[in-house]
Design brief:
The protein has about 400 residues and is α/β, with parallel strands linked by helices. It has 2 domains: about 240 residues, Type I PLP-dependent aspartate aminotransferase-like (Major domain) (Aspartate Aminotransferase, domain 2); about 150 residues, Aspartate Aminotransferase, domain 1 (Alpha-Beta Complex), CATH 3.90.1150. The protein contains 13 helices and 16 strands. The strands form 4 sheets. The protein has a 7-stranded mixed beta sheet, with helices on both faces. It is globular and about 75 Å long. It starts with 14 loop residues before the first helix and ends with a helix. The protein binds pyridoxal-5'-phosphate. The site of pyridoxal-5'-phosphate has 14 residues, from helix 3 and helix 4. The site of pyridoxal-5'-phosphate (PLP) has 14 residues, from helix 3 and helix 4.
């Protein structure tokens, strides 16, 4: 067997990270305070720097990417009994956040090429109760926002972009997260920009921004006394230590983004030469992809009928950092067995018991069974590492082809 190349380790950190964090510790200012009574400056500065990087009017740091979606839903007035259309292929948070605010996620099948929410299917799922669409830029790949925005406009729906995988991804020159009403990010440890935990929300609309701030800071208003609370919010604030690490990591981020983006383009063309291998489709409207994961569908006809489990085993044995993809949401026990909030009627949802039958979600079922994903640190590695992956896939194909 070939000796695997060295893949880049994750996370990447240096002395600057250590000094940014230790300076906060030494300062004794471990939280940010409120706009009128600022304590530390890390959260406020990070918000400005993240907004600047993405060219957003507003950015808010918060506890994590799950809470970021919950805050947006609440800020947009979505709650009890409302239906929210969510891609069926995503991490559970994109849908559990909907449940958390008392609303009902409705799962939408994916496009067979992009693995992203299928806009044609969205139309079929709209009912009088539908209030929003959560489009997840899975793997950092931007959804076809123009089409989704048009559907939202025609049906008076809000759009939340779940950008947990897409820090800096651009659709037609503009960052994801700025096309819909608001966009959410995760800074959890595995993410391309991370501080162990953390999240953020961006938007361009001042009114929505005010609502977001109220909700994430206990119903406060920026210029008012600290113990005045104007609406029902909660404490979703990020701590200063995490914000300091994020500021330091953000300085290194654009270079890492470019490297991953270039590696993905290289892999796309190298893998397209292997019959039956289909990386996540990148259309021309994508002019930058964060590539949190690099997802590949392999047609079982060209691989002797193997599924993702065997592929995963083969790639792991060859020393390639890979992972199984998310199980589609309709399959998860909490949705299949409807173990959700009491006193909410989920009977009209398109999942649960018999409705979670794989036949009702044919595309995601097909792709999931024969897909694998490469960790983003693979794309930060040098070209021999990428060539090794291409070579390994060819060998796996040879091994299993009859
Ligand atoms: C698509 C997606 N949305 C939301 C989240 C939630 O982010 P967090 O883990 O920071 O709560 C994740 C985390 O993996 C995710 O992958």
């Amino acid at each position: 067997m070939d000796i695997p190349p060295k893949f880049t380790n994750w996370p990447i950190w240096d002395d600057q990270d250590i000094s940014m964090v230790s300076n906060v510790i030494k300062s004794g200012n471990w939280w940010c305070g409120a706009p009128k009574n600022k304590v530390g400056n890390q959260v406020w500065d990070f918000q400005d720097e993240f907004a600047h990087y993405l060219n957003a009017n507003h950015a808010f740091a918060c506890t994590n990417g799950t809470h970021a979606i919950e805050i947006c839903l609440r800020a947009l007035g979505i709650g009890l009994g409302d239906e929210v259309i969510v891609s069926d292929w995503t991490f559970v948070a994109s849908a559990s956040a909907v449940v958390a605010v008392g609303a009902i996620p409705i799962f939408c099948d994916i496009d067979a090429k992009t693995f992203l929410i299928d806009s044609q299917q969205i139309k079929k799922l709209i009912t009088p109760k539908t209030k929003a669409i959560i489009c997840v830029h899975l793997g950092g790949m931007p959804c076809n926002l123009k089409v989704i925005l048009q559907i939202a406009k025609e049906n008076d729906l809000k759009i939340i972009e779940d950008c947990a995988h897409g820090h800096g991804s651009r659709y037609k020159g503009k960052s994801v997260g700025l096309w819909g009403d608001c966009g959410t990010f995760s800074f959890q440890a595995s993410k391309v920009l991370n501080a162990g935990e953390g999240g953020a929300i961006i938007c361009n609309d001042d009114h929505i921004a005010n609502k977001i701030y109220e909700i994430l800071d206990s119903g406060r208003h920026p210029g008012e006394w600290f113990y005045d609370h104007f609406t029902f919010g909660s404490d979703y604030r990020l701590g200063e230590l995490n914000a300091a690490l994020l500021r330091s990591q953000l300085k290194k981020y654009p270079k890492q983004f470019e490297k991953r983006n270039q590696s993905a383009i290289y892999l796309n063309s190298a893998l397209s030469l292997i019959p039956g291998v289909h990386p996540q489709k990148r259309y021309d409207y994508v002019d930058g992809c964060a590539n949190y994961v690099y997802i590949v569908y392999f047609d079982p006809e060209y691989f002797g009928g193997i599924d993702y489990k065997i592929m995963y085993k083969e790639l792991s044995q060859a020393g390639i950092p890979t992972d199984a993809c998310y199980p589609p949401l309709h399959r998860l026990e909490l949705f299949q067995k409807v173990k959700l909030l009491p006193n909410i009627d989920y009977s009209n949802a398109n999942w649960g018991n018999e409705k979670s039958n794989p036949e009702h979600f044919p595309i995601v079922e097909k792709i999931y069974r024969n897909a694998f994903q490469l960790d983003h640190r693979v794309l930060l590695s040098d070209q021999p590492a990428l060539d090794y992956i291409v070579g390994t896939l060819k060998k796996i194909q040879e091994k299993y082809s009859i």
